[in-house]
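pinging the channel bc i need a second pair of eyes. not urgent but kinda urgent?? the chain im working w is below, pasted from the shared doc
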Amino acid sequence: MPSSTVSQMPKRKVTLTAKTPAPRRRTKARQLVWVDQRPLRREAASECGRAMQRLEKARSEWKRYEREDQPAYQRWMASTFGALMSRVREIEALVREKELLVREVEKEMYISGSTSYRTAYARVQRRRANPAAEPDPRTKERDPRFSDDEETELDEFTQELLFEEFVRTFLGMNPDRMSDRQHARMFADFKAKVLGQDRPEPPPPFEPEPDALPEPPKSDQNRVKELYRLLVRRLHPDMRADNNTEVSAIWHDVQEAYATGNVERLEMLLAFTDIQSNTAGEHTSLFQMRSVFAELRNAFNALQRTLRTAKKDHAWNFARRKDRSKVEGRVRREMETTLAWNEDQLRELNALIAQWSAPPNSSSARQPRKPRQAEFRY
């Protein structure tokens, strides 16, 4: 066949189809594989031992910081910065007192509808000087014609006027340009926070009473009592001569687990005491060892976070520090900065209170005003 004829013949598309494998037949036979757990148990025991060593080292650091460093630092602070500390405490007390007075005046102005801070300050001072003479406007007056449960409140129109004045004066907003939704939300917040009208709390959702928990089977009860007896022999305070805080913590965990009937927790605590006393044997399972290791790791991580925060304190390692000049310089600068900031706050508060307590300036009212000349275009 000539080559031209072969080239003009149409090419056939060849598609390859993958041959689907035949499904495997499942057999009903089962076979047990024996696993030697001795290497796994040795590895788990060594991991628990290393975790206990790390935790004990972290605990010793925390005990040294709590029992040695902090008392030494407090004694050094009292002997070195006694006068400065007293001055800082005195200024801080004055600042808190003035801030309380300013907040009381602002609340008096919002609630009573005073036109100026001077009037609200005068009312607050009169009430403080003689609290029985002038009642507090924040407490709602009671009408004797009604019962004690019925209280007189401001009408809706007065509340609306107070809200509009509050929005214009203190927020710098025009209430007429607010949307209905924004107006309603801000008006509700104003009544709840400024006027003291608490929003009605929604009724609590109906929750059915929980069913009584089923009693554990007798086998679990017997196991709980057996584990509890073993742990009591090891951890009871009357049977131990040392007063170890860790042992007392484990003792409280044992009491809680026994009260709730938690078998797994009791087994884990028993395994922990076995590993702690190097008496872990065949009765301590691999799962219990893994649980003990997880408990030790969580406790170590929590203590490490506490130690990281404590290491930022000036009192860290203070008892063994010989040269304390750098610490003294840093502490002095911090205390002087704190004192200067509190003094600035006190000056600002005193200036504000002096402005409220000063009498109104009437010099402009005594001088006669000059008549304005009429302006003519012709």
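so Residues 154-196 form one domain. and The mean pLDDT is 75. — does that match what u expected or am i reading it wrong
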